Amino acid sequence: MNSRSNKLLANLDWVAILLYVLLVLIGWINIYAAVYDENHSSILDISQKYGKQLIWIGAAFVLAFLVLLTDSKFYSSFSLVIYGFMVALLIAVLLFGKEVKGSRSWFGFGDFGFQPAEFAKFATCLALAYIMSRHNFKVMRFSSLLTIGIIILVPAGLIILQNDTGSALVYSSLIFVLFREGLYGSILLLCFVVAVIFIISLLYTPFTVLMIIIGGTLIAFYYYRHDLKELFYLMVFIAGGFGVFALVKWAFHLSISEYYMLLIVYIITSIAVLYPIYKRKMKHMITLLFVSWLCVGASPSVDYAFNHLQPHQQDRINELLGIKVDPRGVGYNVIQSKITIGSGGFAGKGFLEGTLTKFNFVPEQSTDFIFCTVGEEWGFLGSSAVILLFMAFILRIINMAERQRSAFSRIYGYGVASILFFHLAVNIGMTIGFAPVIGIPLPFFSYGGSSLWSFTILIFIFLRLDANRLQVFR
Fold it and tell me: Are 370 and 30 in contact (CB under 8 A)?
């Protein structure tokens, strides 16, 4: 037993553990600063949030120890069992959970709350690693993509039903795991294009969006073909066709809109070029044409999808894009957050000297907006240091994932890195107005036990797998 323990201690990645401990302790100090009150000055006062967080931290360290003691084969052998158990909890919380801030995603036990959505992340990573590490698994097979889609969408869908869209969006980050394991880069690009189409469809009229799609398609056509003559002919054909339609509309007093006129011309142009493209076996051009049709078809559906979001979600997106300005309503949190971070200047106001933080100008400043405390008291230097620590931790995990001999461990490691990066980018992005406020915590910094414990389990499972990296069990 002692020999095994010594071997485990020797094989653990102590750099990653040190970074984890540093981030947890810095997060605790910032929770203390965020809710500091001179009447409760002791950092060990368990009646205050920082005192309770210290208890959660102690429990997290115990959890980390227990995870490390568990045989690494347990996590691969029981991956689907753990996943099934977490899915069952997500269903149970819909039926028996309590509603907190409009979201039915918590089990309540007195003053203690437990959020299954947080723990479903590591379970989904385990299930994904198990499925994708099977012999002869090819990520680009339809059956493989379907299986992966079910594994990711089941917990995400149940979390959406809990009215916690922010936590559900975290699962989208797992596309980076698929990309590492062989998903075509064109699919990743397609996801980016769809996101851009969603944004511009909210900002501009359907006619303008269609013009942007056509313009982008023509630019991509020239990028692949490098033929100005062919590009010129296409532009003349589209412009001439639209001019003819406009003339016919004027002559016969037709009620057809400019959007449908341009759409018909583009459809005719696409059909006209499809056969020559197919004949020459120009695969890139066929893909480009397919993507442009997908964008044209997706654009009109944006309004439908947007109108089925919750009103507060619509307001946050409108505020972010500048469609609607409501500084005293939905935009209040972000405006106060940016003012608070900006007030820190280059070097910050100093520890416990944050005036805007101290007088509670920023709502949720110990949870979703904890980064405001970092910005105000530590300034640009401190904020940069925190971000660099996070990035060093994520890059360390990626480096560890790449050295794995086991496909299971590698895939799980990339899942850990993807989830951490998503939380970091979106949480800090929403505090500085670059991302919509979707209510996800900053790892190790935001107050709460569920978040801290789930991230601890997520990370230390990988540390345990890494400690046995020379043993290929999957």
Answer: yes
301-332 pLDDT, tens digit each: 777 677 766 676 666 676 666 656 556 656 67
Q: How many CB atoms lie within 10 A of CB 83?
A: 23
The Cα 204–Cα 2 span in angstroms is: 67
Question: 88 to each of 103, 147, 457, how far by Cα in Å?
Answer: 18, 19, 19
Q: DSSP secondary structure string, 305-357?
A: HHHTS-HHHHHHHHHHHTSS--TTTTTHHHHHHHHHHHHTTTT-S-TT--HHH
Q: Where are the alpha helices (DSSP H) in 322-467?
A: 332-343, 355-358, 371-402, 407-431, 449-467
- Are 300 and 257 in contact by the 8 Å Cβ rule? The answer is no
Q: Which of 15-19, 101-105, 210-214, 334-338 has the lowest mean pLDDT?
A: 101-105
Do residues 335 and 327 lie in contact, with contact meaning Cβ atoms separated by under 8 Å?
yes
Rounded-to-integer distance, Cα 81 and Cα 99, Å = 28
Which spans in 204-227 are helix H?
A: 206-225
Please write down the long-range contacts of 77-86, taking CB distance under 8 Å and 24 or more positions apart.
Answer: 79/126, 79/127, 79/129, 79/130, 80/127, 80/130, 82/123, 82/126, 82/127, 83/123, 83/124, 83/126, 83/127, 83/151, 85/123, 86/116, 86/119, 86/120, 86/123, 86/124, 86/155
CB atoms within 10 A of CB 281: 8
| Location of structure tokens 């698929």 | 178
Question: Which phi and psi (to 5°) does residue 71 adopt?
Answer: -60, 135
Please say whether the beta carbons of 106 and 93 come within 8 A. yes
Average pLDDT over residues 159-176: 87
Asked if residue 116 lies in contact with residue 93, where contact means CB atoms within 8 angstroms, the answer is: yes
Q: Which of 408, 451, 404, 457 is nearest to 427 (CA)?
A: 451
Cβ neighbours of residue 109 under 8 Å, at least 6 residues apart?
none
DSSP 37: B
Tokens at 214, concatenated: 């056509």
DSSP state at residue 186: H
Surface-to-core class of residue 107, CB atoms within 10 Å of its CB (0-12 exposed, 13-18 middle, 19+ buried):
middle
What was the pLDDT predicted at 474?
Answer: 46
Contacts of residue 171, defined as CB under 8 A and 6 or more positions apart, other chains included, come to: 121, 124, 152, 153, 155, 156
Residue 353 or 150, more confident:
150
Half-sphere exposure for 116 (CA within 13 Å, toward CB): 28
Q: Residue 325: its pLDDT value, please?
A: 59
pTM above 0.85, yes or no: no
- In whole angstroms, give the CA distance from residue 454 to residue 270: 50
Residue given tokens 């609607």 in the structure block: 324
Q: What is the mean pLDDT of residues 245-267?
A: 84
Distance CA 131, CA 79 (A): 9
